[in-house]
Amino acid sequence: MDQHDAMLSRLLDLHPKKIDLSLGRTERLLEALGRPDLALPPTIHVAGTNGKGSTLAFLRAMLEARGARVHVYTSPHLLRFNERIRLGSEGGGRLVDDAALQDALETCERANGQQSITFFEITTAAAFLLFSRTQADWLLLETGLGGRYDATNVIKAPKATVVTSISLDHPEFLGETIEKIAMEKAGIFKPGAPAIIGFQREAARDVLERQARRVGAPVAIAGEDFHIYEESGRLVFEDAHGLLDLPAPRLQGRHQHENAAAAIAALRAIDPDFPSKAMESGLLKAEWPARLQRLSRGRLVDAAPAGAEIWIDGGHNEDGGRVLAEAMAEFEERESRPLALVCGAQTTKDVRAMLRHFVGLAREVIAVPVEGEHKCWPPEEVAAAAQAMGISARSAPSFERAVEMLAATSFERSPRVLIAGSLYLAACALAFNGSRIE
Asked: Taking every annotated instance into account, which residue ranges of this chain make up the domain Mur ligase C-terminal (predicted)?
């Protein structure tokens, strides 16, 4: 364990709960730090259940294509904590280095003393401190959980806010209905700051629109104020400012068209004359690890059946399963291959709801534990759930064993392998493969 890993472990013990939604502790610490949150560049604040990170990736790529220096704050990380904090610089950002991260964490720990604060709250304060120390043109800020009481919501005057697709997730913290969850996400809306409401179920959209108008935020609603459609392999975006004929996004899956549209709508709300060339470049350059990411080289690719396609995605709820299944069905139309789903999930997630979307699509499921997570569904239960739906399924005691089982399976042609169900499982796959995130 290196020095800042030891400190991160220590910070986990500053509060008895991993999650305890509140703004007070974060505001107290920021005050002790001299209010670095007041020295941040113009901010675009993004909340939602699915698609937050991809939307931020599009925003970052488009802004950088225009020559901007862009800070980015996301969570959770996949392989190392540094991934959460990207510092803007000329020619593209860079992940915070170990020395700067260690200094910021130590500063926050000293300023906090022994007062109670959650891990996410104190590390968010550290991120704000780092962002305030490095000049940039923009900050792209992702909520950790919810919105209203999320530590990132200490930002009082964002340039714009975006709420991506909302679905049932974290009901123990955000509420057990779409309407209640939407109310929490709507907490990021601020007076005068354009509120971009991404493609939503009607129940969520109605709550979001009502709350945006209540606080005095100008509203742009997907499907009403801006639209997207495909034409001859291109992505067409249309709003009150006109029509844009753009290339299809580099990020795979039709759901990424919706995330790209939310990013474009946000930039057009801030600057109606934002260059279309920068948008084109951003669509083609945006990257977001573990979101329908195809592995082309590495240990996992070498260990898989010859010629296999290997896809990784962190989707972990019902809507995540739906869009993944839709993407796999689209891939099947382009090139038919047997689909093997390697699946592991936390017990807080409805793995059965996710699996239902793969009925008639997956050739088999190999259920695995989510290594490093104690509250994961036993693989045997996940396999049994798949079998009850009519999907052939087996269980493996580890991810490595699942790879061995795949390699030993006879397929009529090279398979398509999807590893999904948890971001922690996606991280395990990337680590096994020897991948790096820069």
From this structure: 300-422
For residue 65, which of 307, 376, 281, 345 has the smallest C-alpha distance? 281
Task: Please give the Cα distance from 300 to 290 (Å, whole number).
Answer: 14
Question: Of all residues in the chain, what percent carry a pLDDT higher than 90?
Answer: 83
* Structural domains of the chain sorted by starting position, each given as residue range(s) with its CATH number in brackets: 3-285 (3.40.1190.10), 293-433 (3.90.190.20)
pLDDT at 373 over 80: no
Give the pLDDT confidence of 387-428 residue by residue, as tens digits: 999 999 999 999 999 999 999 999 999 999 999 999 999 999
Cα-Cα-Cα-Cα torsion 119, 120, 126, 129, nearest 10 degrees, comes to -150
Sheet hosting strand 138-142, strand order edge to edge: 94-95, 85-87, 70-73, 138-142, 43-47, 160-163, 195-197, 219-221
- DSSP-assigned states of every residue in 27-61: HHHHHHTT-GGGGPPPEEEEE-SSSHHHHHHHHHH
